[in-house]
Amino acid sequence: MYQHDGEDVFVIDAHVHLWDAREDNIVHEGGEEFIQCFYDYHTTFTPEERQWDMSEYRHYGADRMVEDLFGNAAADMGIFQPTYLTDFYDEGFNTTHQNAELATEYPERFVLNGTFDPRDGDDGIEYLEELHETYDIPGVKLYTAEWRGDSKGWRLDDEEAFRFLEKCQELGIENIHPHKGPTIRPLNRDAFDVKDVDDAASSFPELNFVVEHVGLPRLDDFCWIAAQEPNVYGGLAVAAPFAQNRPGKFSEILSELLWWLGEDRVLFGSDYAIWNPDWLVEEVMEAELTPEHRAEYGVEWDLETKRKVMGENAAELYDIDIEEKRRTFQDDEISQQFDLGDHYASEEPAAADD
C-alpha cells in the first residue's frame, strides 16, 4: 500500500492496458500514427529520466507491467480497459482476451473489463454475451472514435448503442467506461465528444458511466452533464499527469471536478503504459491545490479525499472489499515476488519505494 505522511492509502489504478504495437502487428498506417501519438503524450508528461524508448513502448510485456504497477507498492490493483482497434492492428491493440493473460493469472490484483461496438449488430451482442460468460466482466470500455471500415465512429446515444446498454444491464455489467477526451491521431476528436453521455446516463440510471479523461478538453461540458446525472463519474486518466509538469492546470481540473461532482465520483487512473503509476501516484498524492483555487472553489485535496479518489471510489463501483484485499495481499504471489508483505501486514505499513 502507498504510504502518505504516515497514512496508508489503498490505490486502485482504474485504467491500465497491456498493448502490442509492434510493427508486425500493424496492418494500417493508422496503427503507426496511433502509437506515435501515444508516445508524444508519454514524453510530454513524463519526467525525462522516466521516459521509455520507442522499442519498449511498443511492447513491454506482462512481466514488466506487473513490476511497474506493483513492484514499489505504488498501486495495489489495476482495472483493464481494452482498446481493440482491429482495423489498425492485426491481433488488436489490447483486447479483453489479451488482457486476460494477466487478469486470470492474478485475479485478486486485476479487474478485467470487456467492450462492445454497436456497429457489430447481432454478432456484437453475441460477443458481449461471450465475454460475460467467459470472464464475468463487471464493466466495458467504449471507444466511440474507433474506425470500422468506412465508419469513423459511433454515438453512445444511438438506438443501436442503447440496445447494447440494455444488454449490459440485463447481464449485470454495471460499469460503462466511455473514452471521452483527447483524440489520438488519426481518430476524430468530435467522435470522442462527451455530449452523447447525457442521454445514455439519464436513460440507464442503474448503470455507472465513468467518463474516462473527464471529457478533456471539454471539461466544462463534462462537469455540467455530471452535475445533473448522479451516475456519471470522472476518470482521471490523462488529467493525472498534469500534476507532474502543469501543477496549476492540475489544480484547476481537480478543483472543478471536486466542486461539481464531489469527492465520491472521481477515480484515479494512470492510463498505463502511457504513464507509469510507479511515479505518477506520488505526483498526484503530493499535488496541492493553489490558494486561489482553494479559496474560489472551497474544496480540499486532503487525506480523506485522496483515499476516495485513489481507491475507495473504484472499490465501491467494483464491489471490492479493501480490508479483505489487504489481508489477501499479505502473502499473495506478487507480494512474495516483490517482498511487499510488510506493506499489508501491519497497521503502520512500510513506506513505498521511490
UniProtKB/TrEMBL annotation:
Pfam families: Amidohydro_2. Residues 12-320 form the Amidohydrolase-related domain. This is Amidohydrolase family protein.
